[in-house]
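Why show two proteins at once? Because comparison is the fastest way to build intuition. When a single record is shown, students tend to memorize it. When two are placed side by side, the eye starts asking what differs. So, the first record is below.
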Amino acid sequence: MKKFGYLFLLMAISLCAQKRNNFNFEVKGNTYTGIGNNYIADGTGTFAGFGLGLSFFVIKNFGIGFDFDKAYGNVKEQSVFGNLHSPQFTSGDIYAFYRHPISERFDAEAFIGSGFNSIVSKSNYSSKDFREGGSSFILGAKALYGISSKKKIYVFASPKFYFLTNFTEMDDSAVQKYYAKPTLFNFSLGLRFYL
């Protein structure tokens, strides 16, 4: 029942945003790279994939957005990541943003949010996939450039940092931090369409 309530709320908000001509959706290409001292940075290569986004303005230049992203990577160091292969990173995010117009065609956004994430990897020793997941805190920015005369289509570039908290429990606090608190740098290029 709750799922229907959330779906109804999302649709109602979307319809209201459409009437104000502030509702938009995005398609994008993504890369994710582990940074710092953690098992993703040391154990995997760069993930590459795609994403979809929806956002709308709530008050003036402030708004809310939702992203779904999926990316595919490879294991570069099995002694760190485990005897696994073909990892897939999936992320679902909700964020608040502020948009600042810089010129007639150029705008910038800053955003903060949170979400869920999971990494699913294949194993040679089991028919079941190895799954791990957790939550994320997100900080990012977006540069947008209008390519249509009526400001309906924009190209954008977006750097974003994911501070993950995985559901991993280790006895040693240093090992716990290494495996449960990875940081990812995400870079996206895409198109935004206003309805």
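Second record. Ask yourself what differs from the first in the token line.
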Amino acid sequence: MEETGQDLPAQGLGYYLEYFLDNYSTEKLEVKLTKKICARMIHEFMMNVLKISDVDWNSAGDLKDIYDCRVCANSIAQVYERGIMGVSSEKIFGLNELVSDSDAEKHVDELMKMTVPHN
């Protein structure tokens, strides 16, 4: 909204983000954000809004916990491969670790670097 001055409609964001925006109760929206949920949100936004295609997995396959959430695996790989989100410790993504407000801002900043043309 800040960039265009327009609200982003919920439809067309992808199943996960649409469900999140339309069906989550206020109580559920107050639950702390985990890295795996953050990765899924960023990945759906990349695909459905920014129209950024997935990249091949290179080093993401080496993450020891990549398959701890099978539905999250590709989302985690996509944000990890692009440097949007990093590991918690050596070869551990840390799927269930909480994302602080400052970390969330950093992730959005990294995502925005991908969308801004470089001179």
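One difference worth noting in the second protein: The chain has a mean pLDDT of 82.
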